């Protein structure tokens, strides 16, 4: 049996961070220190750990960190005030509101208040609209990380058949938009909960991206031998982190991004890239 080549997001992200550190040095020479802000509401351990990782990354490349932490019972007005403060803070080049927000908060109302020029996640309606129209703007970090991971491993994109499983707002839906731009020009099938036969769509794909958040959804018999597979969604259990792709897929795929050390580190590297680009635009 063969074993898939690893799409190593940890190594690619380390390389990107070295490149960004050089660009940050140049910015600092011009008197500009890029700053990433994060707004975290509540005490979800996973969210805390993600936000911690983002600030560790910032320290590595010389980006300043601005951390805002609000209690779980923060009101809509409290969260909106935090957004407005970072919009107005000249030390903050760009920022993110860590998702998910507590259920009593209107997420769309919060995201719409972010200054689109400071939208490090690329999730503001103005930036998603620019993506649809093909106008330059901040791009969502995870889809951007997926495309960058494929490029750095020389996986062909143009003209290839992609099956994207899951069409959430942070991964699947914007990934479909990005992959069908002129610069990528892939053919994309977006599958979701109501798709009749997701396995049949996956089987014909050159690249399968699993971003549904359903543990071990993608089985070995769903994969065309030699295809590229990315396990993006994760489910936390007492036994540890389970990816959307069953581990045995490794025996069929040509290359595979694992649920840990694959797309996750690339998402973080693209967040830093969005900040450095925003600082360079000035
Ligand atoms: N506004 C917002 N923007 C986001 O980009 C965002 C978000 N909210 N909410 C949650 C999801 C999830 N996400 C991850 C990023 C990195 C890893 C990552 O680096 N994972 C490590 C493992 C980390 C671990 O062990 O938990 C790895 O794959 O090696 C994972 C997940 C960003 N998200």
Written description of the protein model:
By secondary structure, the chain is of the alpha/beta class. It folds into two domains: 87 residues, Rossmann fold (3-Layer(aba) Sandwich), CATH 3.40.50.10860; 126 residues, Rossmann fold, CATH 3.40.50. It contains nine helices and eleven strands. The strands form three sheets. It has a six-stranded parallel sheet with strand order 1-11-8-7-5-6. A three-stranded parallel sheet has the order 3-2-4, with helices on both faces. Strand 5, helix 7 and strand 6 form a beta-alpha-beta unit. The longest helix is centred in the first third of the chain and has 21 residues. It is globular and about 55 Å long. It starts with a strand and ends with a helix. The model has no long low-confidence stretch (mean pLDDT 97). The structure holds 5,10-Methenyltetrahydrofolate. 5,10-Methenyltetrahydrofolate binds next to helix 2, strand 4 and helix 9.
Keywords:
282 residues, alpha/beta, Rossmann fold, 2 domains, three-stranded parallel beta sheet, 9 helices, 17% strand, purine biosynthesis, oxidoreductase, multifunctional enzyme, histidine biosynthesis, Bifunctional protein FolD
The CATH topology of the largest domain is: Rossmann fold
Structural class: alpha/beta
Radius of gyration: 19 Å
Q: What number of domains?
A: 2
Instruction: Quote the distance from N terminus to C terminus.
Output: 52 Å
Q: Quaternary arrangement of the chains shown?
A: single chain
Number of strands: 11
The number of distinct helices, counting runs of at least 4 residues, comes to 9
Estimate the strand proportion.
Answer: 15-25%
- The arrangement of helices and strands along the chain is EHEHEHEHHHEHEHEEEEEH
* Ligands bound to this protein structure: 5,10-Methenyltetrahydrofolate
Average pLDDT score? 97
């Amino acid at each position: 049996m063969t074993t898939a080549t690893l799409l190593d997001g940890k190594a690619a992200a380390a390389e990107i961070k070295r490149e960004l550190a050089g660009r940050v040095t140049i910015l600092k020479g011009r008197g500009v220190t890029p700053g990433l802000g994060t707004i975290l509401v509540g005490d979800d351990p996973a969210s805390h750990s993600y936000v911690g990782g983002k600030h560790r990354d910032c320290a590595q490349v010389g980006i300043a960190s601005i951390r805002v932490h609000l209690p779980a019972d923060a009101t809509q007005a409290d969260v909106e005030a935090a957004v407005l403060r970072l919009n107005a803070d000249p030390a903050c080049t760009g920022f993110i509101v860590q998702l998910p927000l507590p259920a009593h908060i209107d997420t769309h109302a919060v995201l719409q208040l972010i200054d689109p020029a400071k939208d490090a996640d690329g999730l503001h309606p103005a930036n998603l609209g620019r993506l649809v129209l093909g106008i330059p703007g901040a791009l969502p970090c995870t889809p951007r990380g997926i495309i960058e991971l494929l490029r750095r491993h020389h996986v062909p994109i143009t003209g290839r058949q992609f099956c994207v499983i899951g069409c959430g707002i942070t991964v699947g839906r914007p990934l479909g938009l990005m992959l069908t731009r002129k610069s990528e020009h892939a053919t994309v099938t977006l599958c979701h909960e109501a798709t009749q036969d997701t396995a049949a769509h996956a089987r014909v794909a050159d690249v399968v991206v699993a971003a549904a958040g359903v543990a071990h959804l993608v089985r070995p018999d769903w994969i065309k031998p030699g295809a590229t597979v990315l396990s993006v969604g994760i489910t936390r259990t007492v036994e540890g982190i389970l990816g959307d792709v069953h581990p045995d897929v490794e025996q069929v795929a040509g290359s595979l991004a694992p649920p840990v050390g694959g797309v996750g580190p690339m998402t973080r590297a693209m967040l830093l890239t969005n900040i450095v680009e925003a600082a360079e635009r000035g």
